Amino acid sequence: MPTFILHTNLKTIDSPTEEVLHQEIRGIIARSIGKSEDFVLTIFNPNTSMRFGAKAGVSAYCEVKNVGVLSPDTTNQITGFITEILSTKLKISPEQLYIEFQQSERHLWGWNGKTFA
Q1: Domain of residue 61, residue span
Q2: What digits encode the pLDDT tens for the residues 26-55?
Q3: Structural domains in the chain (count)
């Protein structure tokens, strides 16, 4: 049920890097939230039209969604890890990156034909 979505104006993400990102981000989110990696969904949307303010260059907008509470400590921890990974692997400057967190109640997410309620 935890979901990570990356929107970036990078034209492409090469397959080896993409696989590493899927693995690392899935692990970070699962450990930070305390849920199984088997239920973490990672989605990458390269080649998205975006510009961070008036600055040209690579930028990104990330979404982290979860059923249940995301504490300030948890969101801070995930922000640090994701910022580090994206700046290292994709050369996205931390100043060109937003991360939005969303928490939902169990009845607002469906999977396998029913909600989590």
Answers
A1: 3-115
A2: 999 999 999 999 999 999 999 999 999 888
A3: 1
